[in-house]
Structure formats: structure tokens, C-alpha cells
């Protein structure tokens, strides 16, 4: 943002940038939906319908299933019908669950959003406390211990952390937090480490400013744009982590829904959840960008 | 530290490449009288639920994971180099297309994308097909992150004095791209490789634990982790966790290699 401080120059660039980001969001969501549906079609196994193997079905039932599948196979026709339904508030019918996709998502979205919000919140709180403590202590041994601990967690697959959460009886939010914590901590350490080397911080130190005031006002605040961008990215990381966590912890959220839908090759559910996840992650990035603008900084 | 980590990785890779000579048994060989046996002199890590030697499967599985994950990383970084170099150099609409594709790939959690596409394989997929598809998907979907870093590096180099000097000397654009810029991207590309390879190892492990990785009977460190699904049994049978220990050791070595020099440039 080049002319933030100029008189009358704030609103136009802000709204222009916001509009551009909104258009980019819509484009990303549409492309994500198209990509998901196209990928599903080129994947081996598409068009195989286990219902056709059922010997109890009559010829007319089999022909009806084949006609239904033929409609799904044409990508252009599928999207035409999909968007006309979308304007009427319909997201289609799930093949494997036999329920409207809108109801399936509505039933499960709340749980996933709560898990993701808890995971992101706990991970950020813990990472911020640890990073602040390390910044205040400035002990090489503590730094090495934190690096070793976060490095150890980074070496574990997310699915193993989900199994550990299940074993210790903690919820999916805690598992997502454990997956996110080392990544967020590392990024925060890198961002604040670079910010701490800047000349104004050295000058502040030379003037005797130390402790939380130095860290919060002279290191963290100037790095707020990068930290906000990281907050946006951490929503994406949390949604990615929600898939193995919900699948393995038997948490009936959207992650588990997409997992089951993928196994059952349930195209309407897969496409709608892809759109939803793309919309949530793009919106999170949009909010973090808007906050950066409102703070007068860019990442 | 970095040299030690690379040395350990090299030693592990050599051992795994010699799996045919080192592994005590074939990975499919069953010992039906010793199903789920504890470690013994004959079976150092015991046998699994189908009576197959766990150590042999660990070694063969390691060969698949440790050879194919770096290969997939190589594919991803090569794609990233091609996309980043052409986007940075050509600019205009091509750059916009590439950055939009990058944003799209980065806006979707890629484990989710992997899961969706991998799940489309028939459940009775041939093990070789599942191996190829799993690692090919990792390579093809993992280009976006490295590409963003490489694109930034290309732009930095294009604004540098040596490229300006080459331009003023009448060097043709393709020559500037291939002879002046590309060699200078080597450290960035190498760093991205060291970051991407362990990420792919972990992704394969996640897919394996979810039952969507390499298909049985072929072993990989990912599908060997499925024995840990019932974690309450692990304290009584710690040898079941051997694939996790191997995976953690290898990923740690990659991390040490990155943190102590792999990200140079």
C-alpha cells in the first residue's frame, strides 16, 4: 500500500484492492470446484458404480442408474446443472449418504469449524507464549530445547498425532493444535528473529529499552503484517489437518465427510466440500489482508 | 551437523537400496505358524498379522518411501523451476496464469486434494499402480510452494546487475534465462528439494495411515504405520512402532540438513 497516508488516497486503493481480492476469491473458488470435478473424472475408477453389480436390480433400474451417471460424466452439463441449483440454494444429492449435500454439510460444518477454531486458537496462544518467553529469556539452551521439541513434532505425521490424541482421550481441537503448534512456532521465531535484528530494535536496546515493551512494541508490532498473513495461512493448515484428525478420531465433521465421500466416489459431496474449503481458506486470507491494510502494513 | 545428517541419510539409502541382499526374507513371504509373533532370532522385529517378517517389510518399505519421495520432490521442484522461470521471465498473462494456479493450489489444503484424487483409484488397484499414482500425485501437486519461492528468486535475479550487463551486451533472452538466471537458481531449488522431500515422506505416511497410500501387499513406511492404529497395543509391542522410528529418524536428518545449511541461497 503505497499511498496509505495520503489525503483522500486511502479509500480508493483499499477498496480497489479489496474488490480485486474478492474477485480473486470467487475465481479461486470456481477454479477449485472445476479442478475437483475434473480431477475426479480423469482419475481411474470414475464411472464405476457398485450399485450396478447388485443382481437384485431390474434392467430399468440399471438403465436409470446408467443415465444418472451419464449426466454426471459430462463436466459442462454437470456444472450447468450445479450452478442453476446453487442459485436456488440446492447443492445436490449425496450418492453414498442418500441425503441432500446441503444438510450433510450444515450438520457437520459447525463441529469442524469449532475444532479448527480451537486448534488454531490453542496453537497460536501456546506458540505466542513460548516465542515471547524465548524472546525475553534470550537463552541459547532454551532456544535449542524449543527447536528440538518443535522439530520432533514436525517429524511426526499428522495422522500419528491424531492417533495419539485419540489414545490420550483429547479432542480433535487439541490434535489440530499439536499439528499446528510447531509450524506456527517456527514461523513466529523466524519472523520475530528477523524483526529483532532491525536497526530500530538495536537502537531501542542501546537506549535501555528491554523486556516485554521492547518485544511487543518494537519487534512484534512492526512484524504484525507477517504475523497476520501467517494467521491466514494457519487456517489453511488447520483445515488440512482436520481431514486425518476427524477421520482417525471418528469426529463427524466435514473432514470425515469428505474422507467417506472420497472413498465412496461421491462427486456432489466432494465438489461442494472443495468449494467450501477453498472459500474458507480464501476468506481467511482476505480477512488477514484486510487487517494488514487497516493496520497500514503489507506482508 | 549437516554433513552428519546427510551422511546418515546416505547410509540409510544405501542400506535400503541393498534390500534384496540385506532383508532376511521377501516382503510377501508368509510364516503361517508364526502369525503376530514377537521378536525372535529368526524375526528380529517379529511378524505381522499375516505372518510376514516385519524387518524385511521395513527394509523393502523404506526402499519405496526413501527412493520415491525424493524422486517426487525432484519432479515437484523441476515443475516449480519451469513454472517460476517462465513466469518470471515472460511475465504478462503467463505470469498471471501461473500465479493464479499457484494461489489455487496453495488455497486448498493439499492433503485434501491428494486424498480426493487418490481415493478415486479402485479399491483393488494394482500395488505398482498405487505406488506410481501416490508418488506421482505428490510430485504433480507439490509444485506450487517451491514455485512461489523460485519466482521471487527469478525476479530478484532479473533485476540484478549481471543480467543488465548481459542484456546490454546483446545476449538473447533465452540465453539469459538458461545461462545467466537458471544456474543461479540452483541453491534455491536445492533448498526447496530438501524441504519438499521430507514433506512428501510425511504425506505418504498420512495417506498410508488413512488406507489410501501404497496398496498391499507392497510395503511402504506409510502403510506399515497402519499396525499402530490401535495405539493401546504399542506399549506392550513396541517393535510395531519401528516404521515410525525409522520415519522420524529420516525426517529429522532432512530437518538437520535444512536447518544447518540446506536453505542457503
Describe how the helices and strands are arranged:
The complex is a heterodimer of chains A (299) and B (265).
Chain A: H1 11-42, H2 59-73, H3 75-87, H4 101-137, H5 140-154, H6 158-168, H7 172-196, H8 199-206, H9 211-220, H10 224-248, H11 254-263, H12 267-295
Helix pairs in contact in A: 1-12, 4-7, 4-10, 5-7, 6-7, 6-10, 7-9, 7-10, 10-11, 10-12, 11-12
Chain B: H1 2-17, H2 19-22, H3 54-90, H4 92-107, H5 110-119, H6 127-141, H7 144-158, H8 161-168, H9 173-181, H10 186-209, H11 221-224, H12 242-262
Give an overview of the whole structure:
The complex is a heterodimer of chains A (299) and B (265). Chain A has 299 residues and is mainly alpha-helical. Helix content of chain A is 77%, strand content 0%. Chain A has helices at 11-42, 59-73, 75-87, 101-137, 140-154, 158-168, 172-196, 199-206, 211-220, 224-248, 254-263, 267-295. The radius of gyration of chain A is 24 Å and the shape is elongated. The termini of chain A are close together. With 265 residues, chain B is mostly helical. Chain A binds chain B through residues 24, 27-28, 31-32, 35-36, 39-40, 43-46, 48, 147, 151-152, 154-160, 163-164, 166-167, 236-237, 239-241, 243-244, 247-248, 258-259, 262-263, 265, 270, 274, 277-278, 281-282, 285, and chain B through 100, 103-104, 106-113, 115-117, 119-122, 125, 129, 133, 202, 205-206, 209-210, 222, 225, 228-229, 231-232, 244, 247-248, 251-252, 255, 259.
Radius of gyration over C-alpha positions of chain A, nearest whole angstrom: 24 Å
Distance between the termini of chain A: 10 Å
Described by the principal axes of the CA atoms, the overall outline of chain B is elongated
Strand content of chain A: under 5%
Share of helical residues of chain A: over 70%
Assembly category: heterodimer
* Tally of DSSP helical segments of chain A: 12
Question: How many DSSP E strands of chain A?
Answer: 0
Count of DSSP E strands of chain B?
A: 0
User: Main β-sheet of chain B, in a few words?
Assistant: none
How many helical stretches of chain B?
12
Query: What is the distance, rounded to the nearest whole angstrom, between the alpha carbons of the first and last residues of chain B?
Result: 19 Å
| % residues in beta strands of chain B | under 5%
Inertia-based shape of chain A:
elongated
- Order of SSEs of chain B: HHHHHHHHHHHH
Task: Give the H and E element order of chain A.
Answer: HHHHHHHHHHHH
Please mark out the parts of chain B with pLDDT under 50 across 5 or more consecutive residues, or reply none. Answer: none
Taking the sheet with the most strands of chain A, its summary is:
none
Largest interface, per-chain counts?
A: A-B, 49 and 39 residues
Supply Rg of chain B.
Answer: 22 Å
Low-pLDDT segments, ≥5 res of chain A = 1-10
Amino acid at each position: 500500500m503505497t499511498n496509505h497516508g495520503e489525503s483522500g488516497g486511502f479509500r480508493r486503493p483499499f477498496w480497489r484492492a479489496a474488490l480485486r481480492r474478492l474477485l480473486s476469491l470467487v475465481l479461486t473458488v470456481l477454479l477449485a470446484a472445476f479442478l475437483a470435478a475434473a480431477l475426479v473424472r480423469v482419475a481411474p475408477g470414475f464411472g464405476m458404480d457398485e450399485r450396478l453389480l447388485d443382481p437384485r436390480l431390474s434392467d430399468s433400474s440399471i438403465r436409470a442408474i446408467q443415465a444418472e451417471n451419464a449426466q454426471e460424466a459430462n463436466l459442462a452439463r454437470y456444472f450447468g446443472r450445479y450452478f442453476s441449483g446453487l442459485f436456488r440454494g440446492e447443492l445436490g444429492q449425496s450418492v453414498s449418504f442418500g441425503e441432500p449435500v446441503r444438510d450433510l454439510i450444515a450438520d457437520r460444518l459447525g463441529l469442524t469449524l469449532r475444532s479448527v477454531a480451537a486448534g488454531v486458537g490453542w496453537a497460536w496462544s501456546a506458540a505466542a507464549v513460548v516465542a515471547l518467553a524465548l524472546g525475553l529469556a534470550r537463552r541459547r539452551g532454551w532456544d535449542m530445547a524449543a527447536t528440538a521439541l518443535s522439530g520432533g513434532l514436525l517429524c511426526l505425521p499428522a495422522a500419528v498425532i491424531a492417533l495419539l490424541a485419540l489414545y490420550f482421550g483429547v479432542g480433535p481441537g487439541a490434535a489440530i493444535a499439536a499439528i499446528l503448534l510447531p509450524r506456527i512456532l517456527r514461523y513466529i521465531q523466524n519472523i520475530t528473529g528477523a524483526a529483532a535484528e532491525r536497526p530500530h530494535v538495536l537502537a531501542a536496546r542501546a537506549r535501555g529499552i528491554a523486556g516485554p515493551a521492547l518485544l511487543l512494541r518494537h519487534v512484534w508490532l512492526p512484524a504484525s503484517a507477517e504475523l497476520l498473513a501467517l494467521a491466514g495461512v494457519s487456517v489453511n493448515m488447520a483445515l488440512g489437518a482436520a481431514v486425518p484428525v476427524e477421520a482417525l478420531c471418528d469426529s463427524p465433521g466435514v473432514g470425515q465427510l469428505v474422507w467417506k465421500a472420497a472413498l465412496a466416489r461421491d462427486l456432489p459431496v466432494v465438489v461442494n466440500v472443495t468449494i467450501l474449503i477453498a472459500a474458507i481458506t480464501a476468506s481467511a486470507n482476505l480477512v488477514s489482508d484486510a487487517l494488514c491494510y487497516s493496520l497500514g502494513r503489507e506482508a | 551437523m549437516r554433513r552428519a545428517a546427510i551422511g546418515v541419510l546416505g547410509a540409510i539409502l544405501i542400506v535400503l537400496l541393498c534390500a534384496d541382499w540385506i532383508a532376511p526374507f521377501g516382503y510377501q513371504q508368509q510364516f503361517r505358524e508364526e502369525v503376530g509373533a514377537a521378536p525372535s532370532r529368526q524375526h528380529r522385529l517379529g511378524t505381522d498379522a499375516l505372518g510376514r517378517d516385519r524387518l524385511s517389510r521395513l527394509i523393502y518399505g523404506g526402499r519405496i518411501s526413501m527412493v520415491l519421495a525424493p524422486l517426487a520432490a525432484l519432479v515437484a521442484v523441476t515443475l516449480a523451476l519451469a513454472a517460476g522461470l517462465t513466469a518470471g521471465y515472460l511475465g504478462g498473462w503467463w505470469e498471471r496464469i501461473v500465479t493464479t494456479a499457484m494461489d489455487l493450489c496453495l488455497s486448498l489444503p493439499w492433503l485434501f486434494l491428494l486424498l480426493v484424487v487418490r481415493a478415486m483409484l479402485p479399491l483393488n488397484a494394482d500395488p505398482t499402480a498405487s505406488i506410481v499414482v501416490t508418488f506421482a500425485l505428490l510430485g504433480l501437486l507439490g509444485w506450487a510452494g517451491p514455485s512461489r519461492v523460485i519466482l521471487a528468486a527469478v525476479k530478484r535475479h532479473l533485476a540484478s546487475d549481471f543480467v543488465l550487463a548481459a542484456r546490454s551486451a546483446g545476449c538473447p533472452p533465452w540465453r539469459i534465462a538458461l545461462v545467466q538466471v537458471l544456474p543461479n537458481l540452483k541453491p534455491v531449488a536445492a533448498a526447496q528439494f530438501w524441504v519438499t522431500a521430507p514433506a512428501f515422506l510425511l504425506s505418504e505416511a498420512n495417506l498410508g495411515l488413512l488406507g489410501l497410500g501404497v496398496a498391499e501387499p507392497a510395503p511402504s513406511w506409510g502403510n506399515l504405520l497402519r499396525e499402530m492404529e490401535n495405539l493401546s497395543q504399542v506399549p506392550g509391542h513396541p517393535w510395531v512402532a519401528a516404521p515410525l522410528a525409522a520415519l522420524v529418524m529420516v525426517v529429522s536428518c532432512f530437518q538437520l540438513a535444512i536447518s544447518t545449511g540446506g536453505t542457503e541461497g
